[in-house]
Amino acid sequence: MTVYFDEITLGQTASFRKTVTEADVVLFAGITGDHNPVHTDEEYARTTPFGRRIAHGLLTSSLVSTVLGNQLPGPGTIYLSQSLRFMAPVFIGDTVTASVEVTALDPLKQRVTLATRCRVGERTVLEGEALVKAPSRI
What is the pTM of this model? Predict the structure, then answer.
């Protein structure tokens, strides 16, 4: 459901949860061409500080896009920019909660600034800020 610019308020939030699967990592590597062995090779990944394979950081960040494009503001939203800070790894099998919170509104341009965060349990794995153009009734 679309939340139009005139319906958006400061502090408004939305979230989405997804468990990252083996298929997600394999498909993301295939789509993007990012076959870094820390994502795709268990033997190699055991030699890294993580001790096992991790999901691509941008796979995790794409869950923020899911919230923006489907919930807040929702269908018709135009993604303008996103800052990201990766804070901890996401492992295959982890359930990630991506959330957004409206922090600023620009009525003239119908732009919305949102704090973005992904968590696995209580652990923040990603945080940043998104700027979007919200859908308008006009």
Answer: 0.94
